[in-house]
Amino acid sequence: MTHKLTVSSPHSLQPWQRGWLAAFERYAARYPAEHAVISLFAEFAATHADAAERGLALGHLTGSAWLVSADGTRVLLTHHRKLDRWLQLGGHADGDVDLARVALREAEEESGLTGLVVEAEIFDLDRHEIPARRNEPVHWHYDVRHVVRASGDEAYVVGDESHALEWRDVATLAADESADASLRRMAQKWLSLR
After folding, report:
1. Check: CATH 3.90.79.10 for 59-193?
2. Domain ranges of the chain
3. Cα(188)–Cα(179) distance, integer angstroms
4. Buried (b) or exposed (e) across 89-107, using 16+ Cβ within 10 A?
5. Which residues contact 76 (CB under 8 A, 6 or more apart)?
6. Burial class of residue 154 (count of CB atoms within 10 Å of its CB; 0-12, 13-18, 19+)
7. pLDDT means per 10 residues in the chain (194 residues)?
8. Phi and psi (nearest 5°) for 42?
9. pTM exceeds 0.85
10. Cα 150 to chain center, whole Å?
11. Res 2: pLDDT
């Protein structure tokens, strides 16, 4: 079964937009049940050549890391300073159209870990609203998540963006009904792939 995404963008696409759409199509082939969210991402990416720019006020693409231990049984989470919630590592693309590279960069910066390896294919997509803060209006994050694997020392360093970091057992997270819904979904997805 083919999963061809359709977008209503009337203008010609930039090379990086075509790259995003191709990645979303490959993702759709693996996760056809997520068609609604994939369509939102595809339409947004096709409509906004500057979708990776933080300055796009209505929303922007972001990159996150499902940062797993070398043995794949644990995931590194951050107690996010601004949002005051346990989440995956990640952040703004700041104009970088390679969202796998963004996920890797954010994982390295927020964890202090080195020797990390990112998987090129998208692991998860999540569109979520960011509340207004200071000079930023309410806007959407179109978060593109990639698996990032630790390959060496797993002793992290807590940075300025986190209250804390913690390795969590993926199976426990998948069963934790009090956990963030997207974290549970990723944990369950990860377990189904192992």
Report:
1. yes
2. 1-49, 59-193
3. 12
4. bbbbbeebbbbbebbbbbb
5. 67, 68, 69, 89, 107, 111, 113, 150, 154, 156, 165, 166, 167, 168
6. middle
7. 54 92 98 97 97 95 98 94 84 97 96 96 96 90 98 86 90 95 97 91
8. -65, -45
9. yes
10. 17
11. 46
